[in-house]
Queue: 2 jobs
Job 1
Amino acid sequence: MKVFINKRIPETGITMLEEAGLEVIIPENDDLSHEEWLEYCKNTDTILNVGANKFDQEFFEKCPNVKAIALFSVGFDHVDIKEATKRNIPVGNTPDVLSRATSDVAFLLMQSVSRRASFYFQKVKDGNWGNFDPLYELGQELYGKTLGIFGLGRIGFEMAQKCKKAFGMNIIYHNRNHNEEAEKELNAKYVSFDKLIEQSDVLSIHANFKPEKSDLFNASVFEKMKKNSIFINTARGGFHNQKDLYQALVSGQIWGAGLDVTNPEPIEDNDPILQLSNVCVLPHIGSATIEARNGMARLAAENIIAFSKGQKMPHIANPEVY
Ligand SMILES: NC(=O)C1=CN([C@@H]2O[C@H](COP(=O)(O)OP(=O)(O)OC[C@H]3O[C@@H](n4cnc5c(N)ncnc54)[C@H](O)[C@@H]3O)[C@@H](O)[C@H]2O)C=CC1
Ligand SMILES: O=C(O)C(=O)CO
């Protein structure tokens, strides 16, 4: 059985696949155009996919030989799951192993924005240390403030846990269902979407993205948020309207923003949001630790190996396929 991997992943995953007797195909030039990527996919049985290549109607029509897809990500918003299931194609993902790393980045962004760290670092790099100024670009402390989580699943829970431990923050959340563990362990309170945006001092997005939720965080939401609030998005850029976010930040409707994901992604070089002192933007590095990436490689390989043995994928985005 052939496994096409579009970009090199940590060696652990590749070794597991090879030891299982699978033929691994990794192109030398791993910066493939869409057409080149499709060409590889057409000629393979299973795909281990790194990145946001779209598994849409075009893909499924042009690549009828593909029998299984193992994503090198927990998010699967780039896959038409209904179509994959209809065609009996299991889609694997990589939950849990990256929750700590990704929530670390949400926490880091929150702190970076609250203390204007990236702005000050840029000043130092520009040779502009500045004099001690009692009123210049002051940060705000997070102790006892309210953290609002939109989408309290695996990553949202870890973010809430860190904020509770580090700053004694009160946790409120809005989710598809109640998270009993968070309510018990963190005293997290379930609130309506409107209450979430009105009451949060830090609003952190951790839900799985669906196209119908595009621009959910837009001007009408930012208007209702507190003036001292910080908006954090490490989930998917599609959740926020970036122009509206810029306006909310410039007009002082909200206090700051930390983004690991942008809309569009990658961010445009001339996006004015990059010029703001109350913003920190990272290039989608939530899972970019050695530990998380090794874990992702292991889970993706486990998925392909299970499939090759006629077994169920152990980490599956469309369990309904079985
Ligand atoms: N920045 C990065 O590098 C990374 C980003 N992510 C993103 O984080 C997302 C979350 O990952 P996990 O915590 O593992 O997923 P999860 O499935 O454990 O948690 C997501 C939670 O969001 C809730 N949810 C989904 N849609 C909702 C809606 N419309 N309203 C209210 N709640 C909603 C779900 O009920 C679930 O509890 C991924 O789907 C991915 O997009 C994940 C890993 C790395
Ligand atoms: O896993 C994901 O969903 C990511 O965004 C990158 O790790």
Job 2
Amino acid sequence: MTKYRFHHDPLHRRLLEQAGRMNGPDCHLERLVAADRRLDAFSAMGGGVFYDFSRQRVDESVMDLLFELTEAADVGRQFAAMAAGEKVNVTENRAALHMAARSFSSSPAMVDGRDAKAELQDVLEQIRPFSKAVHQGEITGSTGQAFSHVVVVGIGGSYLGTEFVACALEAFADKNLSLDFLANVDIHNFSSVWSRIVPEKTLWVVISKSYTTVETMANEDLIRRHMQAVGLNPAWHMVTVTSKGSPGDQGTGQELAAFHMFDFIGGRYSVTSAVGGVPLSLYLGYERFERFLKGAEEMDRHALEAPPKDNLPLIAALIGVWNASFLGYPQTAIVPYAFPLRKLAAHIQQLNMESNGKSVDAAGNKLDEPAGTMIFGEPGTNAQHSFFQLAHQGKAFPIDFIGVLNPQTQLDEGRFKGVGHQQELWANLLAQSTALAMGKPSDDPARSFSGNRPSSTIVVEDLEPESVGRLLAFYEAKTIFEAFVWGINPFDQFGVELGKVTAGKLRTEMAARNRDEAHDFSEVDPINRRYLQMLFNGRLD
Ligand SMILES: O=P(O)(O)OC[C@H]1O[C@](O)(CO)[C@@H](O)[C@@H]1O
């Protein structure tokens, strides 16, 4: 069997031909959505989610070819192999077992002779009593005061997923405990956090799989300095979440607690491991974190078991590849019509772009064109007042609308113009996806709407912890299915290394100047030399 290569598969040419047809006047979305039973035929329900792709620029011929592509790329087998613990991260010779972190079934997940699931369960059993002891004031800071502030110290996957979930479930949070994020090495991030916390009552959760990420290590060092400066022993205000054997694993032996993460879960897939487990159990209570895990598990089971034509994340992935590689849309926006989901796009940005922003396939063959999609987004209705002008009359881009039927709050919504706030929100969500698809001609070109702008609508019944877990797992599976169709490895991220190495060289020059004022940056290229001079002079001239 010849090795699958996305751009060389016969289906690729046939799909390009379909894209040409789809760009013709007979296939304007206004016509596609008018077809009989359009929504029934172009929607799916599963894993506690409703997925409507009736306003995507596809018809049955396109979908049939995309499902054939699923077979050609052997997507189902690869996804099952990943779930079984095979080393699908071929460039790093690692498994990708983020789903094992929320699997409550008894079946093991063996990796190199170890049961990964048992190791993950052990960490959960460590988190549960720890978070309870902090809530009950049995574990306190070094002055005996209960903790009232938790600060996550981490960057990328070591905080983005947690920030998304914490924001989504803020309504359920323990009001006696605030949660902040110290990710950026920019001193303004630290100063902002430091201004809001009470050091004696603060627990710093240092999260770094490698324990070598400079931003996180610099912040950890700064925390220790400032805690010591106010007479506190930082070790009694710090827990670590890191991989076994990392520089942080030994710890100082004094940390309040040390929790493990593992090399078989990548950072951007780690929010259901201790990376999210420690801060979210402190902020929301362990039981709600577990409910979040159960929602994710429900979508995992759907992604693993549903046949392709009923499989929500697989369908979404096929449409993602169709839009990016055949209809030529380089971006996709994620627009949740739900204020609690306002941090979702930032997490999916890393999840999807760090996974699929690749130019070679898993076998090392250069792709004819890079894989991946640029992700951005803001919640609706806000997005209507920022980038929807371009969405309607500028360069078209697909949108994932996300709707929630029942809000978290029972507050009186009033009846402005005869409707409550949630109804007003939905009127806008449906209006936007409709207007983008249908358009509206006008004799005045400035007031003409071309329409034919694709979108999907993803609906959950509520924003309980389970639903947030479902959405998370939906986007993780979608990302991975997309990668398997493109034939790439979604689990490595070598693209982040060059910047780090280059920063290291400049850091060395700066440190030399800090030691010796006569150091003149003569070894630095002229452009960067000018910037170093501006920085050390504090002046533009
Ligand atoms: O958890 P660590 O090792 O500090 O890495 C932080 C982040 O940096 C990256 O390695 C690169 O962005 C991410 O994959 C990861 O989530």
